[in-house]
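During the practical work, I worked with a single protein chain and the tokens that describe its fold, as given directly below.
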Amino acid sequence: MMCHNQFREWLEIPPCGTLDILLLAKSKFGLNIIDISAKFTQCQVILRSKLKNSSSPDIRQVYQASSTNTNVQYDRYLKPKEVIQEIRAEKVANITYNLTSQSLIIKSLWNEAFPEIVKDWHATIDKLPKNIYNFVTRYLNNTLPTLNNMLLWNKTSSKLCKACSNVQTLQHVVPSCKIHLDEGRYTWRHNSILKHLVEYLWSVKKDLRFYADSKASKIHQL
């Protein structure tokens, strides 16, 4: 529990936010974290294996004599890595079948993202400053302070968007508020990202031609 509390403090994840995504392998957009309880189980598996396969008959007798009660749960593993594989399979199942709002983003990534981009994803977020890194992590498990979440946390009296009076979920904030759409906020964000990408690519190779649905300089209209 203490270890999990440190994770929450590090990534600013509220008490209601799941940590299951953090404990997933990087191939599942997790952080590849092995917590203390899993590491303890791995150590117990190694210990039991050493006792069982010892060249000393006396040590093997210790294994036989202790093959009851709590040790039974460790003896079913053949290798320490099986512990992590089982735990992560349980996390995936919990995210898939038990979580609702907190699983929306991560399940979309599993279903839609090409496996080839996973390595680039982690290489990119590992270079981000702490505040943006935390934002990305909380985005994945839908624990950013939208009004819908703030109401669940008893931090506000209404979950309605102050601009359009619809429920302010994460999906609503990012691309769906009609008022913000009419004000051009989403277009501005879209064009700002394109401009940033173009300026970076232009600095690397100046003879490139860029085509996009933006009127920014150095970009040719589609």
